[in-house]
Amino acid sequence: MKSLNCIAISRAALVHNFDQCRQLAGDASILALVKADGYGHGMIDCARIFAECGVAAFGVAEALEGVQLRAAGITLPIFVFAGVIPQTVSAILDAELTPVVVDQTVLPELSRQAQLRQIEVGLHLKLDAGMGRQGTLPADFVALVKAVQALPCLRIEGVLAHLPLSEDRKSNNSSQVLATFTEVTAALSRLVPGKCSLHLANSGGLFYVAGAQLDMIRLGISLYGYYPDGHVGRAAASPPLLQPVMRFATRIIQVRQIPAGSGLGYNHLFTTSRDSTIAVLPVGYEDGYLRCLSNKAQALIGGKRAPVVGRISMNLTLVDITGFDTVQVGDEAVLLGRQGGEEISADDIAGWMQTISYEVLCLFGKLNERVLVD
Ligand SMILES: *Cc1c(COP(=O)(O)O)cnc(C)c1O
Q: 134-137: long-range contacts (C-beta < 8 A, 24 or more apart)?
């Protein structure tokens, strides 16, 4: 038996988005980020679809996710971006994952275990070219490279950095980070003979940072149908636009007539100002439909926007459908996505929650049952 709450993932939209990004990427190859269970869209399903589309590699946060992808039969390179530490080395090598090395800490263990297995490990080094999060600063980078080269069975396959403000088209930060990245990696070309893959751009880098394509682009949000700068990006983009992949629908479980002046739900956060028709939905913060959406969000019912009224509770949400054409128990209500001619986007919901689409997609997708459609 299935839950009344259901996330539909559009395969066609994933393919469309990949193809759009592919065209923008030019000669650069594409690494698809499938961390966070594919931004809530299903890591394994998404990875299989992107593999069919011709993606070059995948990115995950933890080694565990890479191990799960291997168990699902994914054979392309899988980059581990968070948590390449001595404790995860053996899992990383067993699953033939690509370690992203942020400093020298892990190198002795990586080299030791590579020797034991009589393999050479290709790794990518993370430069902190201005992100200020993970990695090694430019001043210490040559020392990191030399530390790798001093150890047996390790090979530098690539160097990467990350952009902190790529979605902000008014900022000149990205061109500064690109300049730092280019300067540091150019100085390495003598030190690291052979092919070394350089990558900097995320979705914002691909769309908004001229010259950031380099050898590979690491794409997340755009593959899932959203612009890194939300509504602004969508409004400014030229067609064909990215297509949102996720739809979140539920079913109405009660339709009530409530007199004017009634307090609704916990804390009576909303009081009816007129005789009202209220639909009850079996969705709540347990499902990622967070409490902060109370009195703010909207749902689509009968192809029209209906406001969420009162407190969202653990499993129940109320919407005001006063004046709507006949609405019945069992009718569909859409919390995210299209119904009829209307659409609620993850950017709309992010606006109500004061966050970004990324967080909405992770929450909804990870907390509800998913089905793959089209
Ligand atoms: C998540 C992630 C990305 C993808 O960013 P988007 O904005 O979703 O395209 C790229 N690079 C790294 C290192 C990441 O962790």
A: 134/81, 134/82, 134/102, 134/162, 135/102, 135/103, 135/161, 135/162, 136/102, 136/103
